[in-house]
Design brief:
The structure holds 2 protein chains of 2 kinds. By secondary structure, chain A is mainly alpha-helical. In chain A, 77% of the residues lie in helices and 4% in strands. In chain A, strands 1-2 form a two-stranded antiparallel sheet. In chain A, a hairpin with a 2-residue loop joins β1 and β2. By secondary structure, chain B is an all-alpha fold. Chain B has 15 helices and no strands. Chain B is globular, with a radius of gyration of 23 Å. The relative contact order of chain B is 0.14. Classes of the chains: A mainly alpha, B mainly alpha.
């Protein structure tokens, strides 16, 4: 490393020589990204806001948008199907997030501790997070389907009655949560495992020297040290729960009788099946705002905790 | 003390093995069914055959599954190329040059927001937009949308890689008379190959897996991606289990192979792009 005293004059000289070109190049380099996100994310977002306060129809193959104020939002407030979707989504998030967090943390500790299967487990346990979500559902359909599923073949083989979970409201929602847990526990595992391997070995070793049992080391030393990671994961998993679509769409199509119709599935139905474009936009904006509030509150809570601990 | 730690814990080994089986068995079952004819799949007892008919039926003439597989390849390649080019260029700009604030602020704000927004909520606006561009239902629209949703990750990951390249390297090249473009392509870019690999592999997986926009932008026919084709095989009444398993295997096996050989890049991708997905 050069000392600042040597570095400063030479870099000033360089900058004066190349300054003009660099400024243009700086704009040129960031412009493609800015253009992309503004055209294909900010613009559709704006359109969605405009449509949410309009009556939208297709006239001669073109979308015709007529402002109607807050009618769509009044409709949302009175729509019991929308409220049911919100409620189901809340249950789905609470159960899936909780189970995947606990399971992922346990697996991270276990794999970190394992020796023989360590390398295989570390590799295999992230697979579900990268396998095509649609295929995740397909895989589980091939397991739990009453007619051809492997699970019923197995149950019959050991002399137990077969299941038909997907036909009942509770069974379908539980299955959907189970599939989501299988799909996303790997994320929790990966982050917690990485955090565990980054813990300062000396601290852990010192606790052992002081006579702490392995259980105490895990509970009292290591678990508190990964608290930040776990809080971050909690937020990530909640956002994933709001976004959930692919797996449930294939597994249950929202059925039976809307028992697994998460909010994303409901918006799709309203837009593409009921053709209520304006209303679907109002629901969309509501969901975006709810997501922002959740993320905002999480950051606020972290801020408050940090400022209190200082 | 060291010894107590390195002693093998039988419980840990067993639990880890159970977890590995919980991941592998459903996948293996799918691949196994892909080689079974329907009649032995719906039979009550287990029956082992080796049959390629499911794959033949998927790709036989008149079937659009082959075309949908090609679409998925095109969409994936297109989205990866855009993310590599824009990601490295803009990541470089944000890390090493000093772009004006009026450009940086909105870009970064959107890069932070996009991964949080549920994709379905953008569908109404995107449908109207794509139909006014005349792109609704085209493979091009899916390339663009896949690129947009992966760009924030690509740009931020590339930026963090460029941050680690010493500034002296760039300055030395400029002093030696290389142009900004030349410096970027021949001097700085080769330094961030691991970042490019991580972006390429991870964006590739994400685009290959994408379903929601494939479903909503196309009508499920010849311009739809593979994932939409797979979903259309899952029908409530006409059930073709063997073909479903074969199609699922075609989509999943390449990803699992990647997860084995490119584990490090995928871990890097998951670690910095987890909110997406």
């Amino acid at each position: 490393m050069n000392s600042p005293a040597v570095d400063a004059p030479s870099s000033r000289r360089r900058r004066s020589k190349t300054h003009h070109g660099t400024a243009k190049w700086a704009i040129f380099s960031v412009a493609p990204f800015a253009l992309f996100v503004i055209v294909f994310a900010a613009y559709p977002l704006g359109e969605m806001i405009r449509m949410s306060m309009s009556a939208v129809e297709i006239v001669d193959g073109q979308f015709s948008i007529t402002p109607t104020g807050f009618d769509n939002y009044r409709q949302a407030f009175a729509d019991s199907d929308a409220w049911r979707s919100m409620r189901i989504n809340a249950i789905f998030i609470a159960a899936s997030v909780l189970v995947s967090l606990v399971l992922g943390i346990v697996l991270a500790f276990v794999v970190e501790r394992s020796v023989i299967v360590h390398h295989i487990a570390r590799n295999v346990l992230i697979w579900p997070a990268v396998v095509t979500p649609v295929v995740v559902s397909l895989i589980w359909l091939l397991v739990i389907s009453p007619t051809a599923g492997g699970l019923n073949k197995f149950l019959e083989y050991v002399g137990l009655p077969g299941q038909s979970w997907l036909d009942s409201a509770t069974g379908a929602l539980t299955s959907a949560i189970g599939v989501d847990v299988w799909h996303w526990t790997p994320i929790v595992f990966l982050f917690v495992y990485t955090a565990l391997t980054n813990i300062d070995r000396d601290v852990v070793q010192a606790a052992r020297v002081d006579g702490a049992s392995e259980g105490q080391v895990r509970r009292l030393i290591m678990l508190p040290m990964i608290r930040g990671t776990v809080v971050g994961l909690l937020l990530v998993r909640i956002v994933q729960g709001v976004k959930a679509f692919d797996e449930i769409y294939l597994l249950t199509r929202g059925g039976p009788n809307g028992a697994t119709e998460l909010i994303s599935l409901y918006i799709r139905t309203v837009f593409f099946d009921d053709l209520q474009y304006g209303y679907a936009s109002a629901l969309s904006l509501t969901v975006v705002l709810i997501t922002f509030v959740i993320v905002g509150l999480a950051f606020l809570a972290r801020r408050l905790r940090q400022s209190r601990s200082i | 003390m060291q010894q107590r730690r390195s002693r093998i814990s039988i419980t840990s080994e067993i639990v880890a093995v159970v977890a590995v089986l919980a991941v592998v068995l459903p996948l293996a079952w799918t691949v196994f069914l892909a080689f079974q004819p329907n009649r032995s799949i719906v039979r009550r007892d287990l029956n082992f055959e080796f049959w390629l008919g499911n794959f033949r039926q998927l790709f036989e003439s008149g079937s659009i599954f082959g075309q949908q597989t090609v679409n998925s390849v095109i969409i994936t390649v297109g989205a990866v190329l855009i993310c590599l080019i824009v990601g490295s260029l803009s990541g470089y700009g944000l890390a090493k040059l000093r772009p004006p604030r009026w450009l940086v602020l909105p870009s970064v704000a959107l890069a932070v927001l996009i991964p949080i927004i549920p994709p379905i909520t953008l569908v109404p606006g995107v449908v109207v937009q794509m139909s006014s561009f005349g792109l609704l239902g085209t493979t091009t629209s899916l390339i663009l949308l896949n690129a947009v949703f992966n760009l924030p990750f690509a740009v931020l990951l590339m930026k963090s890689h460029f941050d680690n390249v010493p500034a002296e390297l760039r300055e030395a090249a400029l002093v030696d008379g290389a142009s900004e473009a030349r410096t970027f392509v021949s001097v700085v870019l080769p330094m961030v190959r691991p970042g490019l690999a991580a972006v390429g592999i991870f964006v590739g997986i994400m685009a290959w897996n994408e379903f929601l926009f494939g479903l909503t932008m196309t009508s499920g026919g010849e311009t739809a991606p593979l994932t939409v084709g797979i979903a259309s095989l899952v029908q409530p009444y006409e059930v073709t289990w063997g073909q479903m398993a074969a199609a699922g295997s075609i989509a999943a096996v390449p990803i699992v192979v990647l997860a084995i050989v490119a584990n490090r890049q995928i871990v890097a991708g998951l670690s910095s792009g987890a909110v997406k997905g």
